[in-house]
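Protocol step 4 of 6: structure prediction from sequence.
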Amino acid sequence: MSARPPSGTRHPGFTLIEVLLALAIMTTLAITGYRALSGMLEGEQRVAQERERWRELDLFFARLEHDLGHALPRAYRIGNTGMPALFLRDGAIAFVRGNLGEPPQRIGYRWSDGRIELLYWPQLDAPAANAPAAYPIAEGVDSWQISLANRSGQWVERWGEVGPQVEEPPLPRGAAVVLTLNDGTRIERVFALQ
């Protein structure tokens, strides 16, 4: 004869409702954990992108300050036209830079298509105008303005005159740069040059 439990007594184990309730709780915890982890990873990615953006801008400003700080008062020629050592027009700047132990080089900066470009010319004095090599140095820039401080402390947005005989003004005392980024952020930097 088989022993049968008396009616009303419970078998060890879980009922179907208890199992389904446990599964629902575990699913809710898993979804919540996934969303939290996903949000944290997206936040980390945004922070990394912002950090890279500000690092790029910091490198741009450091490079510009270094280059302008090493500007030389040396005019150059393109064909029969004399060019000043430093030339600023329409937000683009070109100048002669020199570092100890290196030959002088003509470089420049300009805004083009949402970025700041660093310009290198192949030679200082040239028989004809030639296009510079352009390298993007700062991305995501809607506009930029650059002005230079003359010897009397006035900020000007034009520097140097072109002509057969170049009358060389002294190098500027300072530079002011204003960048407007594509998200509307406005950054102003002022450099003391001499």
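Step 5 (inspection) to follow. The first strand starts at residue 76 and ends at 78.
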